[in-house]
Amino acid sequence: MHDGLLSALQTVAEVSLVSSLKDDRLGFPNNKDLRVFIPDLHLISEARRTAGHFRFATNNEDLLVKVLGALKKLKLEAAEGEQVNVTHLGDVLDLWREVPHVKHNEDTAAQITNDHAALMNALRDPDLDATIFFGNHDFELYKWASYAGLVRRVLFPEEDPRVLVVHGDLFDWLEALPDLIQQIPVYLFAPNVESTPIELGEMREKTMPDPNNTEHIKCATPALVGALPGVEDRVPEEFNVQHAGTAGAYTLLFEQAVATAKAINSEHDLKISTVVIGHTHHARIVRRTEADKLFTLIDCGAWIEDCISEGKHQQPNSQVAALCGNEARIYQLRPR
Amino acid sequence: MRSNPRRERTCSVLIGVILVVFFSGCGTWRTLQQPYVVVREAQFRTEKTSSDRVGLPLDESGRLRVLQYLKAEGNTRLYGKGIADLEAEKRYAPVVQLLSHALTTDDLKGAEAKKVFQAGPVYQVIDARERFALSDTQVVAMKTGSYWWIFYHPTSKKLEQLLVTRDISTKPLR
């Protein structure tokens, strides 16, 4: 199904490869179920973008509408017994940059989405049936009923979960806010705790970077994503994978992801080995083998800020990742 | 009788405090005693239409259906895609176990029900799919966590059917 996705993407974009990994230990052997992940968009209203003088806004919005259309076609035309599941990993909207405080009686979300109607309609198309995550920049969407379907974490396959999908801000907090190290995982993964261990307003205050920073959101410099070859030839089984513990490997949030997977495994007697995130705006696959067990972080990148390939010009992040048949791929897209 | 400004000021403050406490107490009461339950969109309930309502007492397929819904954190669009709540099966086991026995509306006020439900019974259930308002002699709802468990008893006190739906809340689902 990977090749079908690649063909579909190539109908609307120039496609290059950021990273690929095929390994029987990735935890998702099903080759009839294609999981497609779209990372952070950080949409804001046009009025706010103009007033804020932000260097970065959502990249290649028209292209993303076409990509979502191609994914919908791929899903609707899937062979019998095959399925295509599209997931947006969160931070669709950037409420933090849009307003200093979200008020329940002001529909800040609509203020943004009305300026991106084509994209939002494509993302929320019932035929696409995309699963959309809360990110940290749009967590406050929980205040509006029309966003009640957003999720915070998904584990699959259902019968024996091996893959954890989260936005990824959890791992950021574990690193930056050790005081909350106990509270946040409890909040995210132990929903039997009745009282809210951390107030959402407090979350925003403690984690929010300067929303008026005009230069960057997450990546102070463009993310290095490797050589970005075209994909006319066969996609290699391993390409541009970061090996944790190796000099020069880019392993941001990998250790936190592994620690979280191990904690869930221990508490729920599971075997989570692969974690899928967005959040960092730096597309890459990171792996490490521990006693023949593979831990993998698939960071799907973003549609905001820039990436840069080795010795090449930087280009706007426009990435899509996919997992199927124990094979993970991340693509960088450019408009045709 | 001469007025004492200090005493009057003290009295005013005391009355103010009493009023604040009284009205804030009323606010709390209103919040806790939710007067009605709303059946949410198909995405957030156990049935698409009333014809595929879960039968009571729960049999094996009914238990699996309810647990699938709870594992998806009350979001049926996650069916077949993954699990959102790893602890659902354990947490809601007492409710599922209770509902696996024949029950009447009277049982929902009993000690066993009080152990597993946090609120209810509530008799006002709003379902925009219905042609007429539901009768409070035919429906009753109980709450656990973020879910309302709506019981239908069309002909007697015996609970015959079940619909589980997410509460309308501005708090993130737990």
| Total beta-strand segments of chain B | 7
The residue fraction in helices of chain B comes out at: 25-40%
Radius of gyration of chain B: 21 Å
Write down the overall mean pLDDT of chain B. 86
Multimeric organization? heterodimer
The sequence of SSEs of chain B as H and E is: HEEHHHHEEEEE
Précis, in short:
Chain A has helices at 2-10, 46-52, 61-76, 95-98, 108-113, 117-123, 169-176, 183-189, 200-207, 254-268, and strands at residues 13-22, 33-38, 83-88, 131-132, 153-156, 163-166, 223-226, 238-239, 241-243, 274-277, 284-290, 293-299, 306-309, 314-316, 319-324, 327-335.
Topology of this protein?
The complex is a heterodimer of chains A (336) and B (174).
Chain A: H1 2-10, E1 13-22, E2 33-38, H2 46-52, H3 61-76, E3 83-88, H4 95-98, H5 108-113, H6 117-123, E4 131-132, E5 153-156, E6 163-166, H7 169-176, H8 183-189, H9 200-207, E7 223-226, E8 238-239, E9 241-243, H10 254-268, E10 274-277, E11 284-290, E12 293-299, E13 306-309, E14 314-316, E15 319-324, E16 327-335
Parallel strand pairs in A: 2-3, 3-4, 6-10, 7-13, 9-11, 10-12
Antiparallel strand pairs in A: 1-8, 1-16, 2-15, 5-6, 11-12, 13-14, 15-16
Helix pairs in contact in A: 1-3, 3-6, 7-10
Chain B: H1 5-32, E1 37-38, E2 54-55, H2 60-71, H3 88-91, H4 93-98, H5 111-116, E3 119-122, E4 125-126, E5 139-144, E6 147-152, E7 161-166
Parallel strand pairs in B: 1-4
Antiparallel strand pairs in B: 2-7, 3-5, 5-6, 6-7
